[in-house]
Model the fold of this input.
Amino acid sequence: MIRIRPTRGKSFVLWWMATGAVLGSPAFAANEGFMADSPVTRFTSEQKQQQQDMLGDLLANANGGERRSWQSSDGRVGGEGGVRRTFERNGQLCKDLSVRTWFRTMKATNDYRLCKGGDGQWYPAN
Done:
């Protein structure tokens, strides 16, 4: 599993990405119940692990234009993501990701920018 080390602990960024939370957005600040409408809140622990594995693979191995996905056998639960762009900023490898999750009729699509620090960990970036 890819280690991501934000200020709250190594798995917070993957959890944050998987839940669809966009920190600093007006919706995040204004809606205390934002998690209730996220598909990931309905995932089983196995489905959450599949989502995290997909996100980890995107960060470790995918370049611009590459995609990864997973879904349940009936297709009603799943996730997909893609690296929109890989670039370097201030000597750090950065990736812009687009991630989509679904649970039955609930759907969420979110975009993220992460940069790899000198310690090998991925950090949210502006």
